Amino acid sequence: MRDLDELAQIPFTVKQQLLDDQVGNPPFGTNLTYPVERYTHLHLTSGTVGDQLRVPQTAEDWEATRACFALVLQAAGITSCDRVALPFSFGPYLQFWAATAGVQEIGALALTLGGMEGRERLRAMAEFGATAIICTPSYALTLIEVADRWGLTGAFDQVRTVICQGEPGASITAARERIEAAWGARVFDHAGSTEVGVFTYPCPAGGLHVNEHAFLCEVLDPHTGAPVGEGGQGELVLSALQRRGYPVIRFRGGDVVDVGGTCPAGHEHIWLPNGIVGRTDDMVVVRGMNVFPSAIEATLREVGVLGGYRIRFYTEAAERDEIRVLVESTDPQLVGRIEESVFHRLGLRVRVVPVMPGTLAAERPKARRVEDLRQRRSPRR
Ligand SMILES: [Zn+2]
Predict the structure, then answer these.
(1) Positive or negative, the Cα torsion across 344, 137, 241, 29?
(2) Which residues of the chain does CATH 3.40.50.12780 include?
(3) How far is 362 from 365, CA to CA, in rounded Å?
(4) Å from CA of 230 to ligand 1 middle
């Protein structure tokens, strides 16, 4: 390839191909540039045994991973003066080790809080004077509850930055205000994957940028493969430029993003104003619109739905696809509030049906919260 325009002629890479290769050629597959002796790091993707991808990295690859995470921290305003709490159990997953390496790369103090319960972590954060924390939005919320219950809110006193990872942007949007209020800190998001690395950094004006120093980025319509321009929505396709040991070119990781113009801060890398908005495997096309159940779920939590719920896609007599949301509630005003919030946030009309508390859980204990009962799928765009 001599020109970037020729990139489109290179086939996509999907995780299943890499997995199949490793199943056929254990333990690491054939996608290795060098003999195994050259590699220094091994990480696995999350998932069940059998679909866990093994991604080896050389020392040079790991150097690039560290630099990508350092950029995330710098964009969030972290400096060498910070003390960053890392409340992870680590395990074989890239994100935790990359976060730790990134903190060390910028010269901040890494407070590794593995193998501890929430209470111990909060006590350690208070004692060590943590000024920042990296965790999932759900865990930031959990720590608020633990701190309230045990009188440990002093752990938040010096924290001014919460960097979220590991969950889609929708859940961060829902949790952001609560985290920012309780922690008295600013929340930043970022995204990465074991397959290609940490490919974004947060924009202080909101949303994310793709790190185009380290990644070639395309945003394509997931059905037609056509490039999506400013204002459009599509699937992120990434080529990792700095990972030579386990090269992944035009990787379709399934992340769906909105493409922004120039960000208010004037950064030149592609701007994703809403972060990762969903996943292609989670996406349902209703009346020509891409709908993410995860975004509806996030809105339900925002409105204060605490009990069970079910999101049901179905076809009406007129062959019109509809969305019904069953919610366990006795609050007569909740219906209107949910319908309004979902429409306001997602531009979607849904029908909310209140049901008696306990019925959704009792019906089927491990029932899926999303059901697609449509008779015919909407035509693919
Ligand atoms: Zn920006």
Answers:
(1) negative
(2) 4-278
(3) 6
(4) 15
CA 156 from centre of chain = 24
pLDDT at residue 171, rounded to an integer: 65
Q: CA-to-CA distance for 231 and 233, rounded, in angstroms?
A: 7
Range(s) for CATH 3.30.300.30 in the chain? 283-372
**How far apart are the CA of 207 and the centre of ligand 1, in A?**
8
- Report the top-level CATH class of 283-372: alpha beta
pLDDT score, position 352: 94
Residue 366's pLDDT is what?
A: 47
What separation in Å is there between the alpha carbon of 362 and the centre of ligand 1?
47
- pLDDT score of 363: 52
Distance 162 CA to ligand 1 centre (A): 18
- If you measure from the C-alpha of residue 263 to the centroid of ligand 1, how many angstroms do you get, rounded to a whole number? 5
Looking at residue 299, its pLDDT comes to: 86
Report pLDDT digits (tens) over 100-131.
Answer: 999 999 999 999 999 999 999 999 999 999 99
Mind listing the pLDDT tens digit for each residue in 208-256? 999 999 999 999 998 889 999 999 999 999 999 999 999 999 999 999 9
What separation in Å is there between the alpha carbon of 96 and the centre of ligand 1?
A: 25
Local structure of residue 217 (DSSP, 8 states):
E
CA distances from 363 to 11, 303, 354, 368 (A): 46, 24, 15, 11
* CATH no. of 4-278: 3.40.50.12780
Q: What is residue 361's predicted lDDT score, i.e. its pLDDT?
A: 64
Residues ≥6 apart with Cβ < 8 Å to 14: 251, 252
Q: Which residues of the chain have pLDDT under 70?
A: 1, 47-50, 169-171, 361-367, 376-381
Pairing between strand 289-291 and 284-286?
antiparallel
Q: Considering only CA atoms, which of 10, 66, 56, 68 is closest in space to residue 29?
A: 56
CA of 265 to the centre of ligand 1 (A): 5
Rounded to 5 degrees, φ, ψ at 247 are -70, 135
Q: Which of 31, 68, 23 is nearest to 49 (CA)?
A: 23
> What distance in Å separates the CA atoms of residue 141 and residue 266, rounded to the nearest whole number?
32
Contacts of 81 (CB under 8 A, 6+ apart): 108, 131
Distance 241 CA to ligand 1 centre (A): 21
